[in-house]
Design brief:
The complex is a heterodimer. By secondary structure, chain A is α/β, with parallel strands linked by helices. Chain A has 16 helices and 28 strands. Chain A folds into four domains: 201 residues, P-loop containing nucleotide triphosphate hydrolases (Rossmann fold), CATH 3.40.50; 81 residues, Translation factors (Elongation Factor Tu (Ef-tu), domain 3, Beta Barrel), CATH 2.40.30.10; 116 residues, Beta Barrel (Elongation Factor Tu (Ef-tu), domain 3); 176 residues, P-loop containing nucleotide triphosphate hydrolases (Rossmann fold, 3-Layer(aba) Sandwich), CATH 3.40.50.300. By secondary structure, chain B is of the alpha/beta class. The longest helix of chain B has 20 residues. The chains are: A alpha/beta, B alpha/beta. The interface between A and B is large, with 68 and 61 residues. Chain A: It catalyses: adenosine 5'-phosphosulfate + ATP = 3'-phosphoadenylyl sulfate + ADP + H(+); sulfate + ATP + H(+) = adenosine 5'-phosphosulfate + diphosphate.
């Protein structure tokens, strides 16, 4: 283990009494991470209070906690495995201490959810898991505790494991591992245990498999301005690169306003060499080649790549204040260093953490999660949280208090706003032919293969070939092709960016309807922007959506030029053509890449067909491993 | 004193920062955040290794100069080496130093155990300073891994007018958004080193060549691991006579950092009582 490495930060969540503090005490002890004397001290405290050796006293440093038998505050403790240093953040389980759990969890790379095998994932644990997903903690190790009390019964473990896995899947969280343990006895925690011989890994193995979260370096540049310092005639802009990267010489624009300048220097003090670039997570002090008016709260972006400014946004919020949130409330929304006055114009729905079903609500109380529409008097420069988290999420301040947090789900332009108003009054009737019945009959579940790539990369050809092959095998399948959609459903749209975004939305909504009816939908659509495909993913949902990058370089595509479009674009008879005078943003993390420049059409098709089978077939017997 | 740092190879990828770079970046961001949002801002300088790092980070944040006053809560009981170091650094770093003389021990709560009573003088000194200077923000170099009650701290930790700390009513802190609005009279302790470990502090001190009080280095088999007043702090057994050796020692030690501090263990809750009343 190298001490210079960053520790992996882990938050421990779960219902009170399911054994979080005991597990932490046990981990620290077994990892040999307690200072001398601490065990004796705990023995003394335990004796004084007339309890047996109490592991949780290890971390309950405050007398108040020991006397009441509860953990009040998040505390940090660390230990090391052979692979790395791990820092544990203990998040207390009492409902009224939610603020502390959020405080601890927000900085975590991963979480351990401790669940009592006799009780399962009860409401409090579910709330914690839901909050983790909102806070951006995507990796969860589930520790099913107190296995000794059920005699290490494998069936009991499986029951709780499956129930927890299902719940996490609904939150689009994948458990890294689900492990049976007894924290008090130390079985299968640090070392494997004979009692748990039927399970292949200990909790330590699961922790060793985790990796720290990298900063969002590959996303678009977002630089939040923190302050501006004067140094004689010079103006130094202090801030932090929230995503992307910036280099000396880059032209950047400051929003709102959009004034542009080039980065002249990145200033530093006592640095061995002058910095010429900075990436996500780094603080900077910039000078510019021109005098601009810049102030705290401004956002710098790459010139020409500004996010849309909107006055209304839909957010998913969690509320932490004892004072309930009402429609019409006036709050401040702080995102990065910007500070906006907002009104809660609508509480669209609250979400029942137990069932994840939407519930009508006109008041949101502490601990509740809700979708809200916020409106500001001035345009807000925000991102969709799923695209760029640091500028897509923020805190809600009520008076002096940080009372909640929220993730931007949608930026509501006029068109989207009207649709939202309509949507709210809709009450679709419950379906009688359920997804399960459909899948049973057809042998596959519904789903959407979203083929994106340059014109000429082979999307249409592959989609039609795949459709035919699946059809022959008895699949219920359909192709939504860009050109065909353009001829009808989207015949009123042009090729300007906003029209293309609307086109993608229509195709995504159509694909969702069809996929929900059990069809395997193959979409062949250039969909050049990442944000468009992120929209499609959000509309269709993670469970059904698969982004598939049909990869071929521009030279190959232009040489194929099946529709003669590259020739026309080159001759300037066609403008806004993707790859020529309009950018294509390749996927950053597609579910599958099919490289048609190096694979022939048979191999490309086989690759796609195998993948489809592995993802959506119920017959192949491949159960997708969530613990993989 | 030489401030220039030994040149190190530039990392090939921008993102390939190490642990110290990450800690430095975040702490600089926090110090700038405190300076932008809490006016007037001051800093407590105990002259120990941790607050020296905070000062160093402040110089980095503001490109060489510290733009706020630096306060020493002086009990008159520091070791002579500490005063000598203070006077040298104030000159070399051009600091705006304010020395706050703490009230005598006879004015402290007589129910506190003796060493705790001595430490309480600093709390009283801080209170007097806050009242006089009307500071809204105070930078303090405490760390979570030092002591159990400090582990419970927030980065921006609000204090009532009397300086009291209510551990049950702390604001939520997430996504680097901090509560910085408070009623008149309250102040905020800002802890830019909260997430650092003792080892991080030493490794950073070594990398940046930050000067330290020589008492941290072993002489005749003893060194100070934590520096406090001479009446309540004692050196520990050690042969670590350089920063490299301190780092090697800490990588294997099992003795808590504040073992030489008598206030921490006089009674089970002595340090906690001190902190709730406003101690650092």
């Amino acid at each position: 283990m190298s001490g210079d490495e960053r520790a992996l930060r882990i938050v421990v969540v779960g219902h009170v009494d399911h054994g979080k503090s005991t597990l932490i005490g046990r981990l620290l002890h077994d990892a040999d991470a307690l200072p001398d004397g601490r065990v004796a001290q705990v023995q003394q405290s335990s004796d004084a209070r007339g309890v047996g050796f109490e592991w949780s006293f290890v971390i309950d440093a405050l007398q108040a906690e020991r006397d009441q038998g509860i953990t009040i505050e998040t505390s940090r403790l660390s230990f090391a495995t052979e692979r790395r240093r791990i820092e544990i953040i203990d998040a207390p389980g009492h409902g009224e201490f939610l603020r502390n759990m959020v405080t601890g969890a927000a900085s975590a790379d991963a979480a351990i959810a401790v669940i009592d095998v006799r009780e399962g994932a009860v409401a409090q644990a579910r709330r914690h898991l839901f909050l983790l997903s909102l806070l951006g903690v995507r990796k969860v190790v589930v520790a099913i505790n107190k296995m000794d009390t059920v005699g290490w019964d494998r069936a009991a473990f499986d029951r709780v494991a499956n129930e927890t896995r299902d719940y996490l899947a609904e939150l689009a969280l994948k458990p890294v591992a689900i492990v049976p343990i007894s924290a008090r006895g130390g079985e299968n925690v640090w070392n494997g245990s004979d009692a748990a011989a039927w399970h292949d890994s200990s909790l330590r193995d699961a922790l060793d498999a985790l990796e720290p979260t990298p900063a969002a370096e590959n996303r678009a540049l977002r630089l939040a301005v923190q302050d501006v310092y004067r140094d004689g005639e010079r103006r130094i802009i202090a801030g932090r690169v929230e995503s992307g990267r910036v280099r000396v010489g880059d032209e950047i624009a400051f929003l709102p306003g959009g004034q542009r300048a080039r980065v002249a220097t990145i200033e530093g003090w006592n640095e061995p060499v002058a910095r010429i670039a900075a990436a996500a997570g780094q603080t900077v002090a910039l000078t510019l080649d021109q005098k601009l008016f810049v102030a705290r709260g401004h956002l710098a972006v790459a010139a020409g790549a500004a996010p849309d400014a909107v006055r209304r946004i839909r957010v998913r919020a969690f509320w932490l204040s004892p004072k309930p949130l009402l429609q019409g409330a006036e709050l401040r929304l702080r995102i990065a260093t910007a500070d906006h006055r907002v009104t809660v114009v609508q509480i669209e729905r609250a979400i029942d953490v137990e069932t994840l079903a939407p519930v009508e609500a006109d008041t949101i109380v502490s601990g509740q999660i809700a979708d809200l529409v916020l409106e500001s008097n001035e345009p807000m420069l925000v991102d969709i949280a799923a695209d760029i988290a640091p500028t897509g999420r923020g805190v809600l301040v009520d008076g002096h208090d940080v009372s909640g947090g929220c993730l931007v789900l949608d930026k509501l332009t006029t068109r989207a706003r009207r649709a939202a108003a309509r949507r709210n009054d809709l009450r679709p009737p419950p379906e009688r032919v359920t997804q399960a019945r459909r899948a049973e009959k057809s042998g596959h579940t519904g789903g959407v293969l979203w083929l994106t790539g340059l014109s000429g990369s082979g999307k249409s050809t592959l989609s039609l070939a795949l459709e035919e092959q699946l059809f022959e095998q008895g699949w219920r399948t359909v192709v939504l092709d860009g050109d065909r959609v353009r001829g009808g459903l989207s015949s009123d749209l042009g090729f300007a960016p906003e029209d293309r975004t609307e086109n993608v939305r229509r195709v995504a909504e159509t694909a969702k309807l069809l996929s929900d009816s059990g069809l395997l939908v193959i979409v062949a659509l250039i969909s050049p922007e990442r944000s468009q495909r992120a929209d499609a993913r959000r509309i269709i949902g993670d469970a059904a959506f698969r982004e598939i990058y049909i990869e071929a370089d521009i030279a190959t595509c232009a040489a194929r030029d099946p529709k003669g479009l590259y020739a026309r674009a080159k001759a300037r008879k066609l403008t806004g053509f993707t790859g020529v005078d309009s950018a294509y943003e390749p996927p950053l993390a597609p579910e599958l890449v099919v490289d048609t420049a190096s694979l022939d059409s048979t191999a490309s098709l086989a690759r796609l067909a195998d993948y489809t089978d592995s993802q959506f077939s119920c017959r192949s017997g491949t159960v997708r491993a969530l613990e993989g | 004193m030489k401030l220039a740092r030994v040149a190190q190879p530039v990392s090939p990828s921008l993102g390939a920062t190490d642990n110290l770079d990450d800690l430095e970046n975040r702490s600089i961001w926090l110090i700038r955040e405190a300076y932008a949002r809490l006016k007037p801002l001051g800093m407590l300088w105990s002259i120990g290794k941790d607050s020296n790092v905070v000062l160093w980070l402040a110089r980095k944040a503001f490109l060489g100069r510290v733009p706020f006053p630096v306060v020493q809560l002086d009990t008159g009981m520091e070791l002579p080496e500490v005063y000598a170091f203070r006077d040298r650094i104030v000159q070399e770093w051009n600091l705006d130093l304010r020395i706050e003389t703490c009230p005598p021990e006879s004015e402290m709560d007589p129910t506190l155990p003796p060493a705790t009573r001595a430490a309480a003088r600093k709390t009283a000194g801080l209170q007097a300073l806050l009242e006089r200077e009307q500071l809204r923000g105070v930078l303090v170099g405490i760390r979570r891994d030092e002591q159990g009650t400090r582990a419970k701290e927030r980065v921006f930790s609000p204090r009532s007018l009397g300086g009291n700390w209510d551990v049950t009513q702390q604001p939520a802190e997430f996504w680097d958004q901090y509560r910085t609005d408070f009623p008149v009279g309250a102040h905020v302790r800002v802890h830019p080193l909260l997430d650092w470990s003792e080892l991080d502090v030493w490794r950073y001190t070594r990398r940046e060549q930050i000067p330290i009080v020589p008492l941290y280095l072993a002489k005749n088999g003893k060194r100070y691991r934590s520096l406090g007043e001479k009446n309540v702090t004692f050196p520990v057994d050690s042969n670590a006579s350089s920063i490299d050796e301190i780092i090697a020692e800490l990588e294997t030690t099992r003795i808590p950092e504040r073992a030489g501090r008598s206030i921490d263990s006089e009674t089970e809750d002595s340090f906690e009582r001190l902190r709730q009343a406003g101690y650092m």
